[in-house]
Write a structure and sequence with these properties.
The chain is an alpha+beta fold. It is about 20% helix and about 30% strand.
């Protein structure tokens, strides 16, 4: 069956609707009528520095793949509701697609609007989820903004379809909707929205291989693809029973897995990964490796999961134990999969990119934490309660909250009744504790006088999967001194992801430093830019900027120890590294020549 249905169910006229490159009949996938197998790899342009796009795409091709697939994160392109989406520089989706075509690859696009992808808020803009809106549903408060976003995005994809000379051969309808909701009208609306804006190539849905997910995630007349990490035979049987004429397509094969802070680094044994790949191919299936190359959650774009009310923030690295490592290294899994795909040609890329030699550079503590944050100009708001991130129009970063409660003489409990996600608490400038959802109480000593209470709340990553997508951030409940609510707050948004080099200069010039936390600077001389891996032994928790670019978050709870710094972020001569430390600053910055992602744990995702 070839996708020929138009909005409203009317048949397309051949003269007005080009034939798609991919179609199927009798359970066989075709490309322009010739039997075809999709061998794809996921590679996200938003997780790879643009100067490295071609290199990473070429590595996919060298693996033996014929297709690249990528999500499109709405919030990456349009972080502010009152500004048009951007498609330039790092956000130049069309340039990325064109590069894949130049390297001989087909492209599969997954435009959402929800993408999951362990990406902040599942790709949905925080300005949208701040509203009273039913996400991923037929609610006009949701579909209206999606329409305007698709008006900008989808024509750019349509221009790159095969009939127009581009490499795009397929477009996904939403993303794993069957594991989220059951608004059938919404899925039909998304499908029509794609068609109405010029998509003529193959449309497909992608869901886990269970009846629950298949029931709610599929659309009649649209190819149903699977997402899985194991047991492809069972998935094939389920899909063949329900869609007997359709080819078996695995839109995501999880050959590795991502990591959360405070857990182990997830890996999957090479033999295990290759066995499942062989099994998918043995079932006659097409497949996309998720991930073929994971890349990095630069800045503050890492998402989070939630389990039994406990937040599980995702680390900065998105290496995902993929066959092409975070820094581009071709690892054992790459070579084993290449052999399984019977690829014998010579590699066009080096096994590993050049790296800087190891070095240790002193960290100079320039300013205390609160003084540095206050030195960056930003509007404040006042009110009886602390303002949330959403009330302040803030997606990521921190909020500094200040009040002046009177604390009776003696020892008391300061209780943050609903903190999301992590809060450093100070009384009269002195740190007195760190609070989170599992440990919301901090002891405070009173003398009977008022204290300057400062609470620095950090968003550790917006939830990207499940019913809590769109959950708000900040102090959502009252702050108590014992049982008494504290009123009268000043709220200061700290948009770290949007800080400019001037903002960093203001923060680091707010010294002298007198506490153990705050802003520090290291100067790194470089003769020839190359990759490096940054470590901060002795430091606890914070963020790192390289020449004004926010590289990401570090945390001594692991598993990640080093932050990958790609060569294009460095320059010949002196390079300035700025560190924001919330707890306790260590003495040095280390440049290492190898990544360290922490102690490992074998992980294979399975559906019952």
């Amino acid at each position: 069956m070839i996708e020929t249905t138009m909005p409203g169910g009317s048949a397309a006229r051949p003269s007005t609707r080009p034939s798609p490159a991919l179609g199927w009949s009798d359970s066989q996938l075709h490309r322009y009528g010739v039997p075809h197998r999709i061998l794809s790899g996921a590679l996200h342009y938003f997780r790879v520095h643009p100067q490295l796009w071609r290199d990473r795409i070429r590595r996919l091709a060298d693996l033996g793949l014929n297709t690249l697939d990528t999500y499109v994160p709405w919030n990456f392109h349009q972080p502010h509701a009152d500004r048009a989406p951007r498609f330039d520089g790092w956000r130049d989706l069309e340039a990325f697609i064109a590069l894949a075509g130049e390297e001989g690859l087909d492209v599969v696009l997954r435009p959402g609007p929800y993408i999951c992808a362990e990406w902040s808020n599942g790709g949905l803009p925080a300005w949208l989820t701040a509203r009273d809106v039913v996400l991923r549903s037929s609610d006009p408060a949701f579909t209206g903004p999606v329409e305007r976003w698709f008006d900008e995005l989808i024509p750019r994809i349509a221009r790159q379809q095969t009939h127009a000379g581009g490499p795009v051969v397929a477009v996904q309808v939403e993303n794993e909707y069957g594991s989220y909701g059951d608004d059938e009208a919404y899925l039909h609306w998304i499908r029509s929205a794609l068609l109405e804006r010029g998509i003529t190539e193959l449309l497909f849905t992608a869901d886990g291989p269970t009846e629950l997910m298949h029931d709610a995630g599929t659309v009649p007349g649209t190819l149903a693809a699977a997402t899985l990490g194991s047991k492809p035979e069972a998935a094939r049987a389920l899909f063949a029973k329900r869609r007997p004429d359709e080819p078996f397509v695995v839109a995501e094969y999880w050959n590795g897995w991502f990591d959360h802070w405070g857990e182990r680094h997830h890996v999957r044994a090479v033999d295990s990964a290759v066995r499942t790949l062989d099994a998918i191919i043995g079932e006659g299936g097409s497949v996309s490796l998720y991930m073929a190359h994971g890349g990095t959650n630069f800045g503050l774009w890492a998402g989070a999961n939630a389990e039994r009310g406990r937040l599980q923030p995702t680390i900065t690295s998105y290496d995902s134990d993929a066959p092409i490592a975070e820094d581009g290294t071709l690892n054992a899994k790459f070579h084993a999969m290449r052999a399984a795909l019977r690829v014998t040609g010579q590699l066009r890329v080096p096994e590993r990119m050049p790296v800087l030699p190891p070095a240790r550079v002193p960290l100079t503590h320039r300013a205390d934490l609160i003084a540095g944050l206050r030195a960056v100009p930003t509007p404040e708001s006042t009110g009886p309660r602390p303002a949330t991130f959403e009330q302040l129009g803030l997606d990521a970063g921190m909020v500094l909250l200040t009040a002046h409660p009177k604390i009776p003489t003696g020892e008391h409990a300061l209780i943050l009744t609903d903190v999301r996600d992590r809060a450093v608490v100070l009384a009269d400038g002195v740190p007195i504790g760190v609070a989170d959802a599992q440990h919301p109480e901090v002891p405070i000593h009173g003398t009977g006088a008022a204290v300057r209470l400062e609470i620095l709340v950090e968003n550790l990553g917006r939830i990207n999967y499940g019913p809590l997508v769109g959950q708000h951030k900040g102090l959502l409940g009252p702050v108590l001194v014992d049982r008494r609510i504290v009123y009268g707050w000043t709220s200061r948004p700290i948009a770290l992801a949007e800080w400019t080099p001037d903002d960093l200069r203001h923060a680091t010039a707010a010294g002298p430093a007198s506490t153990g936390a705050g802003f520090a600077v290291a100067t790194v001389p470089v003769e020839q830019p190359a990759d490096t891996f940054l470590a901060l032994p002795g430091s606890v928790h914070g963020m790192v900027w390289v020449n004004g670019f926010l590289l990401g978050r570090y945390w001594d709870i692991g598993p990640q120890v080093t932050l990958y710094c790609p060569a294009p972020l460095l320059r010949t001569g002196e390079n300035t590294i700025v560190v924001l430390e919330t707890d306790r600053l260590g003495p040095v910055l280390e440049l290492r020549d190898r990544p360290e992602l922490g102690p490992t744990e074998e992980y294979v995702e399975e559906f019952d």
